[in-house]
Amino acid sequence: MALKLVLVAACALIDSDGRVLIAQRPPEKQMGGLWEFPGGKWEAGERPEETLIRELQEELGITVKEPCLAPFTFASHAYADFHLLMPLYICRRWEGIPQAKEHTALKWVRAKELSDYPMPPADLPLIPMLRDLL
Ligand SMILES: Nc1nc2c([nH]c(=O)n2[C@@H]2O[C@H](COP(=O)(O)OP(=O)(O)OP(=O)(O)O)[C@@H](O)[C@H]2O)c(=O)[nH]1
Ligand SMILES: [Mg+2]
């Protein structure tokens, strides 16, 4: 059977205090209840930055300009039914106040506290990288 490769663009929003925004997935979704970086699936014809700007508007109601997205790292993880390839961008500048439009909750957390929040397995290697950055 052909491998299903899923491209998801995600973002670590960093506030002026150096805290990172994480969002809790709704209970009915795949991996419900886990905390993640806002973002979502690539749609045909989009560049990854366009995917992310669209998702940040849809999920958080914020406007991000493309030069404010800095590539940081990526996750590559084999889930049971698909392989996730997820570039993680850093963003420190946006317009608007993030609201949980599609998530159960949002939380600003210090990098060293990220491991207190259950995250999808693909995200676990990203935590020490953020800790080193911040
Ligand atoms: N956004 C996001 N998705 C992640 C992360 N880690 C991770 O494994 N994923 C997985 O990537 C996949 C796509 O994420 P998503 O549910 O946000 O996609 P989406 O916003 O387009 O939503 P939709 O599928 O309901 O339209 C999910 O299987 C999700 O569990 C993460 O940190 N952020
Ligand atoms: Mg999403």
TrEMBL record:
Q: Where is the Nudix hydrolase domain?
A: 4-132
Q: Which GO terms describe its biological process?
A: DNA repair; DNA replication
Sorted alphabetically, which keywords does the UniProt record give? DNA damage, DNA repair, DNA replication, Hydrolase, Magnesium, Metal-binding, Mutator protein
Q: Which InterPro entries match?
A: MutT-like, MutY_C, Nudix_hydrolase, NUDIX_hydrolase-like_dom_sf, NUDIX_hydrolase_CS, NUDIX_hydrolase_dom
The catalytic activity of this protein is classed by the Enzyme Commission as 3.6.1.55
Record has DNA damage as a keyword: yes
Q: What class of enzyme is it?
A: hydrolase
* Transcription regulation found in the keyword field: no
User: PROSITE patterns annotated for this entry?
Assistant: NUDIX, NUDIX_BOX
Name the chemical reaction catalysed here: 8-oxo-GTP + H2O = 8-oxo-GMP + diphosphate + H(+); 8-oxo-dGTP + H2O = 8-oxo-dGMP + diphosphate + H(+)
Which family does the record claim for this protein?
Answer: Belongs to the Nudix hydrolase family.
Which cofactors is this protein said to need? Mg(2+)
GO molecular function terms here? 8-oxo-7,8-dihydrodeoxyguanosine triphosphate pyrophosphatase activity; 8-oxo-7,8-dihydroguanosine triphosphate pyrophosphatase activity; 8-oxo-dGDP phosphatase activity; 8-oxo-GDP phosphatase activity; metal ion binding
Q: What is this protein called?
A: 8-oxo-dGTP diphosphatase
Q: What is the lineage of its organism?
A: Bacteria, Pseudomonadati, Pseudomonadota, Alphaproteobacteria, Micropepsales
